[in-house]
Write a structure and sequence with these properties.
alpha/beta; 6 strands; about 325 residues; about 45% helix
Length: about 325
């Protein structure tokens, strides 16, 4: 059984749709065909949404935004890709130990500043006036409460699999290896050794061009907080997802079929597999499950069974 699964890909590649499909299946089918326990799912997209909400509240008080120049632009500080990884890693550790998440929005802003410090970035709220910060925290309180309510309960049991979804990439025109803080090599190096020692990776492969097309297709107005229907701004696709380094890392790994991760003085070889979704096998999963075509479900299931068999056998 796979203890921890990292589900990675460019935006709109089908990651969240696959999560939805896995969650729709009986536990015994998931265990038999995909070597997964009961999946307890995490992802870092909610933190991006919360950061944009924080900026929105700051602008209401005529205070300069801290994360994004405007709602349709990439991070002001690209090291916030590391910030997201540290926050996701914290969620994983809380899930493993059964530590309950704190819905206090002040706790969230504190966590963001600590995560920024961990990756060598300046605190986000150090220059925000105290009165404005309190008002912002009050404004985002419902968003934080909604996010915390979606987090799975821990601790992880022997029949559970932690599933972490995230996307990393680099600017259009870049060539791997990507320089930090872009790319998977950098973000993977920030995870706790306990995670790296137990993790496998499933990469959903689409081209940057196809990622861009599907991103436009799935976006719905007002769905900024939705994992299935949010749209990544065009400027972000160009600056942060014009290319990614996963296949490069897989091909250049010291051990075939793995991704080599260096964290401090330790080296980890994470088993990795590729689900080829360049021809779209997953977008239909955004519809109501009762409308899923049986033949497409069967074809998807069989291909996933094949991919997971290779992953579990490494």
């Amino acid at each position: 059984m796979i203890d921890t699964l990292l589900l990675v890909a460019l935006p709109a590649s089908g990651k969240s749709e696959l999560r939805r499909y896995l969650a729709s299946l009986p536990a015994e089918v998931v265990a038999r065909d995909f070597h997964l326990g009961h999946t307890k799912q995490l992802d870092d997209f909610p933190y991006v949404h919360l950061m944009r909400r924080i900026d929105e509240e700051l602008r209401r008080f005529d205070v300069e935004s801290v994360f994004f120049p405007s709602p349709d632009q990439p991070f002001k500080n690209p090291w916030d890709w590391g910030t997201l990884t540290v926050l996701l890693d914290e969620d994983y550790r809380n899930l493993r130990t059964g530590t309950a998440a704190d819905p206090d929005p002040g706790r969230l802003t504190w966590r963001i500043d600590k995560a920024r410090q961990a990756v060598g970035a300046v605190e986000a709220f150090g220059f925000v006036p105290a009165r404005a910060r309190r008002a912002v925290e009050e404004g985002i309180a419902p968003d934080v409460a909604e996010f915390v309510a979606t987090l799975p309960d821990g601790p992880l049991g022997r029949t559970d699999t932690a599933l972490l979804e995230f996307a990393r990439g680099g600017p259009s025109g870049a060539t791997p290896p990507l320089d930090p803080p872009h790319g998977y090599a950098y973000s993977l190096s920030l995870f706790d050794p306990t995670l790296l020692a137990t993790a496998s990776i499933l990469y959903v492969w689409v081209t940057p061009e196809e990622s861009r097309r599907r991103n436009l297709e799935r976006a719905r107005p007002g769905a900024d907080g939705s994992i299935l229907h949010h749209g990544v701004p065009e400027a972000v696709l160009d600056a942060d997802y014009g290319v990614d380094d996963f296949l490069y890392l897989l091909e250049s790994s010291e051990v075939p079929g793995t991704i080599t991760v260096r964290r401090g003085g330790e080296v980890f070889h994470l088993p990795a597999a590729v689900f080829d979704n360049r021809e779209d096998h997953t977008s239909f999963l955004r519809a109501d499950p009762e409308a899923w075509p049986a033949d497409r479900v069967a074809a998807l299931h069989e291909e996933l069974r094949r991919v997971f068999a290779g992953l579990a056998n490494r």
